[in-house]
Specification:
With about 375 residues, the chain is an alpha/beta fold. The chain is built from 19 helices and five strands. Strand 2, helix 5 and strand 3 form a beta-alpha-beta unit.
């Protein structure tokens, strides 16, 4: 049976809801569709915001032969088959490749000459940042359209098109639950109607069992949320830090991944301002390793709040960068003779270790240089 989301899919831009910045009147994609402009492009945005629908509308406007593949299961053989197929009246061939970021470099390289020659018009759909996932040569030959999460008003319009009867509370609940994902909302409504006959907040909850949170552990949202957590802790906002942590936990993030990031943060952003921060982070990692979810969530919360409230210093981080710059600049500078190891007579004859001052004998106040001659008296720390 055809899913409801497919049945009510818009067939033209007049029926399409959302993405007015690219599909509205006189906007780039709308103009391209109107002028029947043939070109390859990428639709980048969160799930359920119209990527597939826009690809179909575009192909229909050009009266092209549309081939649909998912990069999760497709390969070179599928592309070759499309290229070899005969088309009527020399129609253009448009390949809609869903989750294009799943194609590896070799597969993307294979597509490149056909996109470059125009033999194949490629429309890629992805939830991930194309800058990181699409090879530069292919990306440079495609226009990127960034799609946005649907607003509450846009979601309400789409929900009403399903034909289901639901009161304001149920409408508000499904909109909040789906967080801008129209396909998710339509699917939950359809399943609720099939199971219970009527749609209420209670039947919606029973159908779904748990609130849906969009958090792709390997996608762009993953990096956005961990960045938000890191910056909130750096800014000493404990409340915001706790919020972003819980977003990650409730989204199913690996607790050890979070704990590893806290260990890094403890030295990078707190460092010598509070050496106990590293103890907290390592302890949180050990707690996560020992007991796992759900018990370790409070251990992570303790560590995150501690990091946020702690004094901050990036002096150690900055010093490391300065030293690394000198190491790259000057290469393997020779170790000063007086602090070299001298386990053999030959080494001693070569003055290895000569005139070395044993610090305890000087009550740790000896005047002695430990850096290479070229970096003598260089200071990296304040």
């Amino acid at each position: 049976m055809e899913p409801l989301a497919s049945k009510i899919r818009p067939k033209n831009l007049k029926e399409f809801v959302g993405q007015t910045h690219i599909a509205g009147k006189d906007k780039p994609l709308a103009v391209a569709i109107k002028q029947k402009h043939l070109f390859s492009f990428i639709l980048w945005g969160p799930p359920g915001v119209g990527k597939t629908t826009l690809a179909k509308i575009y192909a229909r406007s050009l009266k092209a032969d549309l081939f649909e593949l998912s990069a999760v299961s497709a390969g070179k053989a599928d592309i070759k088959k499309i290229l070899s197929e005969e088309t009527n009246n020399k129609k253009p061939k448009i390949l809609f490749l869903d989750e294009i970021h799943r194609f590896n470099k070799a597969q993307q390289d294979f597509l490149l000459p056909y996109v470059e020659s125009g033999e194949l018009i490629l429309i890629g759909a992805t939830t991930e940042n194309p800058s990181f996932e699409i090879i530069p040569a292919l990306l440079s030959r495609m226009r990127v359209f960034v799609l946005e999460e649907l607003s509450g008003k846009e979601m309400a319009t789409i929900v009403k098109r399903t034909g289901f009867t639901l009161d304001k509370k149920a409408l508000d609940w499904i909109i909040a639950m789906a967080t801008g994902d129209a396909r998710q909302a339509i699917t939950v409504l359809e399943n609720t109607s099939d199971l219970y006959g009527k749609i209420t907040v209670e039947t919606l909850k029973e159908t779904l069992q748990s609130k849906f949170l969009r958090y792709d552990k390997k996608g762009d949202e993953h990096y956005n949320v961990i960045s938000a957590l890191h910056k909130s802790m750096r800014g000493s906002d404990a409340d915001a830090s706790l919020y972003w942590l819980v977003r990650m936990i409730e989204g199913g993030e690996d607790p050890l991944y979070i704990a590893r990031r806290l260990i890094r943060f403890a030295s990078e952003d707190i460092g010598i301002a509070n050496s106990r921060a590293l103890d907290q982070a390592v302890s949180a990692y050990q707690a996560c390793h020992f007991i796992g979810y759900p018990e370790c969530n409070i251990n992570l919360a303790q560590a995150v709040v501690y990091m946020a409230k702690s004094k901050k210093s990036n002096e150690l981080y900055e010093a490391y960068q300065k030293v690394a710059e000198d190491v790259r600049k000057f290469g393997n500078l020779p170790v000063p003779l007086h602090i070299r190891n001298a386990p053999t007579k030959l080494m001693k004859d070569l003055n290895y270790g000569k005139d070395y001052k044993y610090s305890p004998d000087f009550k740790y106040e000896e005047d002695q240089e430990y850096l290479p001659e070229k970096l003598k008296n260089k200071k990296y720390l304040k």
